[in-house]
From TrEMBL:
GO MF annotations, alphabetized: lactate racemase activity
Domain Lactate racemase C-terminal: 276-422
Pfam family, one: Lar_N
Lineage: superkingdom: Bacteria
InterPro entries, per database record: LarA-like, LarA-like_C, LarA-like_N, LarA_C, Ni_dep_LarA
Protein name (record): Nickel-dependent lactate racemase
Organism: Oligosphaera ethanolica
LarA-like N-terminal domain boundaries: 8-213
Amino acid sequence: MAQVSVPYAKSAVTFTIPDENLVGIYESSVHHCQPAADGLALVEEALAHPIGSAPLATLARGKRRAVIIVSDHTRPVPSRAILPPMLRQLREGNPAIDITLLVATGLHRATSADELRQKLGDDIYDHEKIVMHDSRDAASLCFLGILPSGGELWINKLAVDCDLLLAEGFIEPHFFAGFSGGRKSVLPGIAGTATVLANHCSEFIQSPLARTGNLDGNPLHRDMLWAARQARLAFIVNVVINGAKEVIKAFAGDSVAAHDAGCEYLRGLCQIEVPAADIVITSNGGYPLDQNIYQAVKGMTAGEFGSAPGTVIILAAACNDGHGGEQFYRFLADAANPAELLARLAKVPQAETLPDQWESQVLARILSQHQVILLSDQCDPAIIRGLHLEVARTPAEALAKAFAIKGAGARVAVIPDGVSVIATYKTGG
């Protein structure tokens, strides 16, 4: 019998799988990469050799106002390692430059003062000018044209009015934008609500090109790139982090060229090929990403694409905060079945996109093809069932339910962290 652990909350859960059923354990090598130096040194090295751009100090010359888009509390971006070298280089190039840190909240709530201090460190929090983006504050937004999709582009005025727009961030696989980082700092990071909703419309989410690890032809990515160009995003510093949230590689320079280089580097670490399996066990990477079912949908996608219809996906996620969004929950809870909801959402016009519609659409898409068992001993079972998911409180219970569905000889593949991989499936075993 094989003992296989997957992340869960701040620890892990262990599945006991018969050797004859286990086809393998598949994970991104990024988790185990050890940094060659500390994060600050790696960022300094990247800044010393910018990709497709003049150095940051050179860009700062003659500029009056610079804005650095920084990530919010929902992203494990090591801002303490990224921002100090950026700030120093800007001031070396232009001691008089006025710098504002603009927190990219997207549609999230505002980051609290304590969260900001923890993220940025005392020195930056106490001495730098920090502004919180609010996607719903029309007075703080500026119209920049019509996106390729037809949606209106509204972004924060501070970004439009500055002379030099920069962004920090990190790159990881993203379940419909392909990868995080780069252009996402602008859209959805500092965009207006209407712009984000238009970009996350049902047509785009349904596109087979809007998938983990894919940028080519991805309609969301196309809009995001256009938005970043309109906003004149001049320079980025994006990092790749390991399982311990340490920087293992940094990319600095032109917002497109540096991001492309980072994505290709990460692809080489995250791409996995999984043999045909009847049961896929995965997780949302543990805390903080597995605190609710809304976020846990991301991990489920690792068991979706390329796997045969009817594959049972076991997703281990604490979901101690419940569903993660009332609108998200109601979409599915009020639907007769996932297929009915999927068909209904596919007809929603771009201009009528509702908040959290996209997450409900992705979950409905998964459930219309696969059965999902949510392993959680911290979430109300009624909430889980309301979202058309099966409930299991222990790994043994989850496996027993999966084998009851697929048979005693079912093949089991384990992807310990579903949000860190770009998974493809072999056909025929």
